[in-house]
Amino acid sequence: MAIRADTDDMIAFLNDLLALDPHFMNELVSRRIACSDAIGDHPTVQAMMIDGRPAAGFIGILSGYLGTFDDGPYKGYGPITALFNNSGDGKLTGFIRTECAVDVWDHGKDDDL
């Protein structure tokens, strides 16, 4: 499924919400909830296995709506990446397009991961 044109608008909206209430957004984005195999196997929802069961979170559901990359290095991934502070507290610091995340990692900005 192609990436929806309104992806950048969703990312801006998520960053606005993060600025309004960082604790709420961190809690929301950090949770994974057990789901059915039907959700876990959905072609665009980003899910993972936890204790042998599929689980999904808020960003995984949004990615399901916004689409996944059909090919290239991000094939199967959704278009939103959540960034977390890597300096100890692990708090959510922002949202970016997935294809831009490699720029953050490649430039050593570990405090923004």
H/E element order: HHEHEEHEEH
Quaternary structure classification = single chain
Specify the helix fraction band: 25-40%
Q: How many β strands by DSSP?
A: 5
Give the overall shape, derived from the CA principal axes: globular
Number of domains: 1
Largest sheet: 3 strands, antiparallel
Give the neighbour order of strands across the main sheet.
1-3-2
**What is the number of helical segments per DSSP (H or I, 4+ residues)?**
5
Q: Could you name the ranges where pLDDT drops below 50 across 5 or more consecutive residues?
A: 106-113
- Terminal CA distance: 27 Å
- Name the structural class: alpha+beta
Q: What number is the mean pLDDT?
A: 88
How big is the Rg?
A: 14 Å
Percent strand: 15-25%
Keywords:
single chain; alpha+beta; three-stranded antiparallel sheet; two-stranded antiparallel sheet; 5 helices; 5 strands
Question: Explain this structure to me?
Answer:
It is a single chain. The protein has 113 residues and is an alpha+beta fold. The protein has one domain (7-112). The protein has five helices and five strands, in the order ααβαββαββα. The strands form two sheets. A three-stranded antiparallel β-sheet has the order 1-3-2.
